[in-house]
Amino acid sequence: MKHNEKINQDKISSLRSSGSLNPTPKKVRDPVFQNNDFFDPMDIVQVKYELLRRVRTEGATVSDAAKSFGFSRLSYYRIQAMFDELGLCGLVPQKRGPKEAHKLNKKVLEFISEQIQEIPSISILALKAAIVKTFKLSVHPRTIERALIKKKKTAL
After folding, report:
1. Which residues, in sequence order, are CB contacts of 19 under 8 Å at separation 6+?
2. Quick one: pLDDT band at residue 103, thresholds 50, 70, 90?
């Protein structure tokens, strides 16, 4: 593997781990990303910033800029709103989906604690069955495990 290939793989790995790897770099057709090594279509934060800059400082239309950078007009306005609210941090993609165990509310967590106190060796699957029976709530076993791990960490 050549030195430049190694650097490129390291950068891709870093972008992926930070959530900043552009899933569609081939859609970025803006000339500055095609003819300049500084601009990397794989870096979604850089692409979004340049999209905003092109409209705000160079006067490009939203439609033309969005198309050139591989976004829709609606995406442009979402990107702009996030940037206006959070600055550069708003351009970093956010993790999708629930941020916490939303099914395991306070009552369910108390119920789990009670079950563990009554039967210390109770299995996760038995806890799941008890939750379904008591609350008519389907919870993945891994969700219960995570809640127990979190409880142990906060108890320390």
Report:
1. 92, 93, 94, 95
2. confident
CA atoms of 28 and 42, how far apart (whole Å): 9
Secondary structure element (H or E) that encloses residue 14, with its range: helix 3-18
pTM of the prediction? 0.60
Helix (H), strand (E) at residue 117: helix 106-118
- As a whole number of angstroms, the distance between CA 95 and CA 44 comes to 14
Cα distances (Å, whole numbers) of residue 23 to 8, 27, 42, 90, 144: 16, 9, 8, 18, 32
Name residue, tokens 């999708």. Answer: 96
Whether the CB-CB separation of 35 and 73 falls below 8 Å is answered with: no
Give the span between the Cα atoms of 137 and 94, in whole angstroms.
28
C-alpha–C-alpha distance, residues 66 and 115, integer Å: 54
